[in-house]
Amino acid sequence: MSASVAATSSPFLPIPPARDIPLTFTASLKSWWYAGEKQGAAAEERLLRRLPFFVPEKMPTSTAGDSPVIARTERMALATPKHYLNTLSIKSTNKAPNAPPPAVVLHGYGAGLGFFFRNYPDLATWAGHRGTDVHALDWLGMGRSARVPFHVKAKRDDVASRVREAESFFVDSLEEWRDKMGLDKMTLIGHSLGAYFSVAYALRYPARVNKLILLSPAGVTRDPNNLTMPSRELTDTGDSASSASCAAARKQESRTMRLVTYLWEEGWSPFQLVRSSLFWGPMLIGKYSSRRFSALTEDETRDMHEYILNITLAKGSGEYCISHILAPFAHARMPLVDRISALKMPITFAYGEHDWMDPVGGLQSLQQLREAGNHFGRMFVIPGAGHHRAPFSYLDNPRAVNDLLTQELDSTDKQR
User: Fold this and answer.
1) CA angle, corner 35, sides to 32 and 39, nearest 5?
2) What's the pLDDT score for residue 266?
3) Neighbour count for residue 71 (Cβ, 10 Å)
4) Of residues 231, 355, 393, 396, which has the active-site annotation?
5) How many angstroms separate the CA atoms of 10 and 6, rounded?
6) Residue 37's CB: how many other CB atoms inside 10 A?
7) In sequence order, what are the residues at sequence separation of 6 or more whose Cβ sits closer than 8 angstroms to the Cβ of residue 331?
């Protein structure tokens, strides 16, 4: 069903359909001109209106009918003025007295809660069946949360202080959000950098975490090459270069790597480069959207592009954490494998067979946990899968991820 048909058949006020992915400079210029907070809100709502239990802002909950869950979005204000976290709450309409702790879905670097629109239906089914809630939020400074200034005061050579300051920006705002929401404990479902921050939160607030489910977690392994090899997460183009091409480009690649390293250490982010391209930005984002979300329908791909476009072109903020958390080419400055043994709660790692993130880090982490007395960890590797592509991706093949998530949400007690 197209976005325009869905809008007219809905009991809610219609939303104009998303623009086509720009293929010309003129179309790119128009997309750039119209991008902004209002368009970002509409793009997010287009994705969420696919959920039959979603109720837009200012609409009565009765519009959801007799659904066992109701989903709404809100801006959860934090103590600091103009700080807020954009939140999607999927709440059970019949709370169970013995309900498990709510699940909280946490996106990765530069993403947002809209990325999981194909996972929410199964998570909502779980929530309705168990009489509990599911929440998803945009990290502070990302998605549609407040784009507040991001600063790290520590000196460049004080790695521990840099990492702690950068982590605190996200971890402390998540803790404040938890308190405002009135949650005692949470099961954190984190993807990529969201999984990294989930572990960082659990290390600082262990009493508030029921379980960790880490999907393709970033920042786990140590760098075996001392930054000599770039991560595929930064360099992958989806194509395999020939050996001859690689040999011919080796000299240029060395120069490129030095430039990337310099920009990284100076605090540049990939999204800053896109914004710097101005009118060409929507076309660049369109190339990414068309390639990464090729398994989605045409309408879904267009809606995802519009969503990514608006959160990417928004004011830079939390994205600048990346050079403090990760060294150039995506290995953590303070790897989780060296820190995770302090955790006592159940932890599940999940990777794709062809994941950018190294599953060895998960195995090493499980070994560290067991040596420290935590035998509540396990790991899954999904055959044929990658970091954002089928079947592991929560977008390309949600069934594999949804089955894993509901299984893990229900198995916490058994895991213990």
Assistant:
1) 155
2) 76
3) 24
4) 355
5) 6
6) 12
7) 219, 221, 222, 223, 227, 231
Q: Could you tell me what percentage of the chain is helix, strand and coil, using 3-state DSSP and rounding each to the nearest 5?
A: 45, 15, 40
Q: Tell how strand 133-137 and strand 84-92 pair up.
A: antiparallel
The confidence band for 257, taking pLDDT boundaries of 50, 70 and 90, is confident
**Cα–Cα distance measured from residue 202 to residue 192, given in angstroms and rounded to the nearest whole number:** 16
- Say if CB 102 and CB 134 are below 8 A apart: yes
Alpha-helical regions (H) of 90-230: 120-130, 159-181, 193-204
Q: Which 8-state DSSP code applies to residue 297?
A: -
Q: Decide: 352 and 362 in contact? Cβ < 8 Å.
A: no
Could you tell me the sign of the dihedral formed by the alpha carbons of 341, 345, 346, 351, in that order?
negative
Spot the catalytic one: 192, 216, 365, 393: 192
pTM of the model: 0.87
Alpha-carbon gap, residue 196 to 190, rounded angstroms: 7
Of the residues 305, 331, 387, 388, which is catalytic? 387
Active site residue 355: yes
| Closest to 129 (Cα-Cα) out of 415, 412, 410 | 410
Give catalytic status of residue 192 as yes or no.
yes
387 is catalytic: yes
Please state the φ and ψ torsions of residue 267, each to the nearest 5 degrees: 95, 10
In one-letter notation, the amino acid at residue 235 is T
Strand partners of residue 106: 137, 190
Q: Over the stretch 139-169, which tens digit does the pLDDT of each residue have?
A: 999 999 999 999 999 998 899 999 999 999 9
Q: Which of 34, 32, 14, 16 minimizes the C-alpha distance to 24?
A: 32
Helix (H, G, I), strand (E, B) or coil at 125: helix
Sorting pLDDT into bands at 50, 70 and 90, what band is 206? very high
Rounded distance, CA 353 to CA 340, Å?
A: 23
Distance CA 105, CA 189 (A): 5
Q: C-alpha distances in angstroms, 198 versus 88, 188, 270, 286, 365?
A: 18, 6, 23, 30, 15
Question: At 225, is the pLDDT very low, low, confident or very high (cuts 50, 70, 90)?
Answer: low
Tokens of 292: 């990464």
Q: Are 187 and 101 in contact (CB under 8 A)?
A: yes
CA-to-CA distance for 332 and 233, rounded, in angstroms? 13
Output the CA–CA distances (angstroms, integers) from residue 382 to 57, 94, 191, 404, 410, in the order listed: 38, 34, 15, 10, 19
